[in-house]
Amino acid sequence: MRLDKALANTGIGTRSAVRSLIASGGVTVNGVTAKDPGMHVTDNDKIAVNGNETGIKENLYFLLDKPDSVLTAMEDPRLPCVGDYIPAELSGKKLAPVGRLDYHTTGLLIITNDGELSHRLQSPKYHIAKKYLVTFKGPGWSDGEISQVAEGITLTDMDTPVKTAPAELSVISPDKAEITLYEGKTHEVRRIFAHFGKEVTALRRVTLAGLEIDASCENTGSIRELTDGEISLLKSSVSL
Ligand code: URA
Fold first, then answer.
1. Residue of the nearest CA to atom 7 in ligand 1?
2. CATH class, 61-124+221-237 region
3. Which fold has domain 129-208?
């Protein structure tokens, strides 16, 4: 983003006021006095006005532990949605969830305005691992069924049959299993389980691209910004 635009976005003044400020030598970027209002700055640059650091960030990255009965949408006229967990002052920042968790799925959801990162994390091309903890009702998993999931199965429950990508399933107890997917078809976990006569009664995403949250649901509704290390981890997982 341009330096003058980044500064004007913070509300310190109009673009022309910001340009005058730069011309008067009041702005430094990484400790060096800025001369060009059009210079390119990123989240990693430290921008100061009259010696005070502004904390300008072009992109924002949040990790929400999504609660049950919350829609994966930024706004909804009727239902609670993940946008309700974002501070109101960030409403103009074009934040959006990375992919979708079902209304009744809990767990790890990234919310960002970094469109390229979001796009890549959702693309099967980058083979991003997403692990889910599943509570289910029905017959236990046989070794043969687990092998079929590992190879990919054809789901025929919707209009068009679809083949799932290879996934890893491991049984934890008679009613609990973990499944790791590398793609994100609609309701994929619930449909894989249903294909084998099992009904998912609770679903929680616990990892995504190396990020992890607690397996318990004790902190659903908690939200925090990702650390620089976590942002780098996400970016490097999709070659950014
Ligand atoms: N698979 C599902 O069935 N639901 C989700 O929310 C995520 C993956």
1. 101
2. alpha beta
3. Alpha-Beta Plaits (3.30.70)
Q: Which element (helix H / strand E) includes 180? A: strand 176-181
Taking CA atoms, 92 is separated from 10, 11, 60, 70, 96, in Å, by 12, 13, 12, 21, 11
Q: Closest ligand 1 atom to the C-alpha of 72?
A: 6
How confident is the model at residue 83, as a pLDDT? 97
C-alpha span between 55 and 175 (Å, rounded):
47
For residue 105, the CA-to-ligand 1 centroid distance in Å is 7
> Does the C-beta of 183 come closer than 6 Å to ligand 1?
no
Q: Where residue 150 falls among pLDDT bands split at 50, 70, 90?
A: very high
Confirm or reject: Cβ of 72 under 6 Å from ligand 1: no
CATH, domain 3-54, list 2.40.50.100, 1.10.472.10, 3.10.290.10, 3.30.450.40? 3.10.290.10
Q: Mean pLDDT throughout 152-178?
A: 97
Measured from the Cα of 104, ligand 1's closest atom is: 6
Residues contacting residue 190 through CB under 8 Å, at least 6 positions apart: 102, 200, 203
**What's the mean pLDDT in 129-139?**
98
Known active-site residue 84:
no
User: Ligand 1: does its nearest atom lie under 6 Å from the Cβ of 188?
Assistant: yes
**Residue 15 confidence class, pLDDT cut points 50, 70, 90:** confident
> Which of ligand 1's atoms lies nearest the C-alpha of 190?
3
| Residue 147 pLDDT grade (very low, low, confident, very high; cuts 50, 70, 90) | very high
In the chain, residues under CATH classification 3.30.70.1560 are: 129-208
How many residues belong to the chain? 240
Q: Is the pLDDT of residue 44 over 90?
A: no
